[in-house]
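Researcher: Please generate the 3D structure of the following complex. Treat every line as part of one assembly.
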Amino acid sequence: MSIRVRELRKTYRMGAERVHALAGLDLTIEKGEFVAIMGSSGSGKSTLMNILGCLDKPTSGTYYLNDRPTHEMGAIELARVRNEEIGFVFQSFELLPRASAVKQVQLPLLYSRKRWLGTRRQARQTLERVGLGDRMSHKPNQLSGGQRQRVAIARALVNKPSIVLADEPTGNLDSVTSASILELFSELHEEGQTILMVTHEEDVAGTAERIVRLKDGRMFSDFPTTMDPIHRAYLGHEALSAAARAGVGATSGTGGPQPMEVE
Amino acid sequence: MTFLIRLITQTVFSAIGQMMANKARAALTTLGIIIGVWAITAVIAAVTSLNTFVLKGFEEFGANRIELWGTIPPSQRRSRDDWQRVRLKVEDAEAIRKHAKSIEMVALTSNLRARIRAGEIEKAGVRVTCMEPQFLEIDRRVIKSGRPLAESDSTDELPVCLINDKAIDELRLNDGGVGEFLTINDRRFLIVGVIETKAMGPMFGGDDAQSEIMVPFAQVPKLQGRFYWIQAALRMKSGLDENDVKAEIRFILRKHRMLRPEEEDTFEMFVFESILRQMRGMATGMTMAAAVLVGISLLVGGVGIMNIMLVSVSERTREIGLRKAVGANPLVVLLQFLIEAVILCLMGGLLGLILGQLSVLGMQAGGRGNEALKALATAEIPPSAIVLSFGFSAAVGVIFGMWPAIKAARLDPIEALRHE
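Model: Done. Output below.
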């Protein structure tokens, strides 16, 4: 068992008001799953990601990560869990501006107590895994958006975490690059990596094998991707409009409605 | 432990990288530290040099030494004969020997410049000292060969003398001096001993050693004319307050000279220890004043460091957030920023030290080229000052880097990653 969350609540105080970002959430994610978490803004998905990533602690409820009660841990212990068990991938990459790709990937190893030697080799291997074998010494400003995100993914993977948490990993990328990053995630999933990805795009969520939807800090739905009604509707709509486009294209040659042309 | 060492070395490198990326900023930030260390090393070097210059002078002259001579109160000065009246006498010395418990040794001396001849060589204006035997010890003279002068040389009025190396060279006494004869103002003297040539301390006319000849005190009437002068060199017991010693001598001499209470002293004394103490006090005062100035400049420097570290923390908020996300715990972040501050300060200290060393080289050059600055010729930064200035720099880094580092350590990673 990888992640087990029970009755998770997170309450913020905003002036006199109390905002319930999470209002009693139950969630279980097994090892090796690839889960997309969706929801509109304010649904609590960011709060959930922060708690799952051990960056934040719940107001109440329990969160067991690999059977360890993270809700009972202090700041130093949580930092260690983040270092050893969790790999973060951010929407805006969050690379150090002046460091080379290898240095970026080495960063988590610097704070690790597990490995003393060979951190550079390990970083290189991980960079090769994400397809950046020829970009080791490049700095962020010498890399394209997709390459930067690959460096960030290598950094998330380098310490062999039990889960990778990706927060809108394709949010700052064009569709072609997004597709290649998502393909990388799929490959990692095939290799057995547990991945949690927050997104608000249906086609991105389609890469995952399971979609969890949140609403108002509670679970709204939890289905395998192929059975998720909203996703199916989306796919259906996509297919329909694709067909429509194809239909328009097919008829346009034989004298359908033509675009107006000014003579 | 290994973890800590690796973390520190990595942090040191990244801190140096940070500085290299912002060279001008780092240099301006550490200006206060640079100037502080520059000032303290230069001042310590100068004071140390002055101190050794002065101390060396006194050591050459002899510690615990008192000079005593007769004098006429200014209101009564009329003729040269009056001076002969107050001149020190053998009886004065005897009175002190007999009664002054604070005095170890007394020796009367009388100096003249004489014409010396040895064989064909003649030299005029050579310094001749008529002295009682203990003067050699009070003046810390070293006998190189032969014998010192003895009490019996005086009582028997033997025409014997001591001569120093320099005079042997100048008079070309090739057989080593002892057993040879020379004439002092045409009187024949036998050389019975050779003394080491003693340079006067740098404070008392410089290092140029002079030819010197010493004869028993009993030769004074024969060598001196009607007008001559006698002074006494005394050595007091160490560890006594010089004012008590002066009071005792004054009491004994006034009594011996039968001065009435309303009469002024007909003698004067000079105690070297008191001057030495004043000099030491002056040096301490200078160092203290410098320390205050340096303290202020280090304080200003420290505030500069604090300011730039605060800027750095807020500039790098996202980076701190990221580092925390990938597993840096608050202590590690604290350590990282603290090390950066310390490195910044140590770099400033190093630059200051380099400037200080350049100033010292300037002082040395000035001291060699200019008689008035002679005291600075031996200026150099003592190792303790180097350790001290690096210690201070590091301390400033820790003290003034603490607040920014705590601020960085306390950043909430979620907020930090959201920071624009």
